[in-house]
Design goal:
about 0% strand, 5 helices
């Protein structure tokens, strides 16, 4: 492996770990705090967070790692021999399915529905309880997947270096 290739895999490791950290913060205390607020306050705060994420570096990393992970997995499949190959490919698949796939199929649709709800209504308050519970469960999965992807990339780097 060239030094440049190892650096790219190491950067992927770091970015996946940072993404896992952001997800962990939401799972650990952000959503718990929002649930402890009144439903109207929690909904409003989450609506603002969901709108602000579109102009964040976090979204660039989260979505940018999708093609990077796919490319790294393909590179590993075609260009790397030995046990590192499986670790790199596993990291790519775990990230694509567990972080990006869950985001697009689980969290984003829930965010879109939450965004359409008017504040203070009975429907919004009822949905908030469902949203906070299931959104957080999906987020736990994204946290674990991003962390596992980082771990797989790291093990691959160690084995191949």
């Amino acid at each position: 492996m060239t030094t440049a290739t190892l650096i790219v895999f190491a950067l992927a490791t770091l970015i996946c770990a940072l993404i896992a950290g952001v997800f962990l913060a939401f799972s650990d205390f952000v959503m718990r705090s929002l649930r402890n607020a009144s439903p109207t306050t929690g909904i409003e705060a989450m609506q603002i967070i969901n709108r602000e994420v579109f102009s964040s570096i976090f979204l660039v990393w989260l979505l940018g790692m999708a093609p990077v992970s796919a490319g790294l997995g393909a590179y590993a499949f075609f260009s790397i021999d030995g046990p590192a190959r499986a670790w790199f490919m596993a990291g790519s698949m775990i990230y694509l399915i567990g972080a990006v796939g869950v985001t697009m199929l689980g969290n984003v649709p829930m965010n879109q529905r939450l965004d359409t709800l008017p504040l203070g209504g009975a429907a919004a308050e009822k949905y908030w309880d469902v949203y906070a519970t299931f959104w957080t469960q999906w987020n736990h999965l994204r946290t674990v997947a991003s962390g596992l992807a980082a771990l797989c990339y790291l093990v691959g780097c160690v084995l191949y270096a």
